[in-house]
Amino acid sequence: MKLVFERSIPGYETDWLGASDVPGSAIPENLRRQTDLHLPELSQNELSRHYTQLAKESFGVNDGFYPLGSCTMKYNPKVNDEVAGLEGFKEIHPLQPVETIQGALEVMTTAESWLSEINGMDAFTFQPAAGAHGELTALLMIKAYHELNGDHHRTKIIVPDSAHGTNPASSAMAGFETVNIPSDEFGCVDLETLKAAVGPDTAGLMLTNPNTVGIFDPNITEITKIVHDAGGLNYYDGANLNPIMGIVRPGDMGFDVVHLNIHKTFSTPHGGGGPGMGPVGCKAILKDFLPDYYPVETNGTWAFTTPKHTIGQVKGFYGHFSILTRALTYLLTLGGDGITASAKAAVLNANYLLHGLKEKYQVPYGDHCMHEFVISLSQLKKQTGVSALDMAKALLDYQMHPPTMYFPLIVPEALMLEPTETESKQTLDEAIQIFLDLYDQAMENGEVFHEYPLTTPVGRVDEVGAARNPQIRYLFD
Question: For the segment 386-398, what is each residue's pLDDT rounded down to a tens digit?
Answer without folding.
Answer: 999 999 999 999 9
